[in-house]
Amino acid sequence: MFSRLREDIACIRERDPAARSAFEVLTCYPGLHAVIWHRWANVAWRHGFKWLGRFLSHLGRMLTGIEIHPGATIGRRVFIDHGMGVVVGETAEIGDDCTIYQGVTLGGTSLTRGAKRHPTLGKGVIVGANSQVLGGFTVGDGARVGSGAVVMKPVPPGATAVGNPARIIKADVEAVREQAAAKMGFSAYGVTSGDDPVSQAMKGLIDNASSQEHQIALLWQAIEKLSSGARELPGSPCVPQDAQTVEQFDAERLSRLVK
Predict the structure, then answer these.
(1) What is the model's pLDDT at position 215?
(2) Which of 43, 64, 141, 182 could make a disulfide contact with 34, Cβ separation 3.0–4.6 Å?
(3) What was the pLDDT predicted at 174?
(4) Cβ neighbours of residue 39 under 8 Å, at least 6 residues apart?
């Protein structure tokens, strides 16, 4: 028990720059207190003391503002940051090294008793503030759920889900993810610098427009050369005077506007 407690304190100090000492983490972090309460409640639940498990869970909720059903499964080094308003359902499973921020719900969409109603988070998953993960599916290892997202379908390993309903906008190569982890590339709140799907769509349109203008300019340059070879003036009907043979599209400037 004490070894796991040391692990929990160490992971919090690693991921939260505001944590100044192990004593501060042990006494002032409700996320850690909620996990400790859950471990006792889960022991009672698994040994058939269902009411006692629920009562311990209820006490933990009153003291921390974090509601974890005693039947939920929580792995090692799970960090619930701030934590107020977090709800974890009965059949939810949280893998090792996950980070969960305030206002998160790991909820269910089914009323069937005994069924897998709540999500499973793989290892190293980050769930951003006020996001809702609803259903009995899996969020893959290393995935991220952006703040405020509503996720109701599986998320591939290493992907980022944002929006309502959530959209998968990025899937990292495993090697890149491992390299980022080795360099302490922790992404707070599950947000990266390209999570806005509207911005991504605009950038795609800008790149496409730039490519098309480049091709059109090349075509007119080719026509102008053919016309010159036939001793025709650039102002002849074969080459209109308003033909644009020089690119003027500033894709970089427009891209900066949607950043």
Answers:
(1) 80
(2) 64
(3) 42
(4) 1, 74
Euclidean distance between CA atoms 211 and 228, whole angstroms: 26
**Residue type at 130?**
N
Residue 218 identity: L
Least confidently predicted of 53-62, 158-167, 221-230, 242-251: 242-251
**Percent above pLDDT 90 for the chain:** 51
- The mean pLDDT of 77-96, rounded to a whole number, is 93
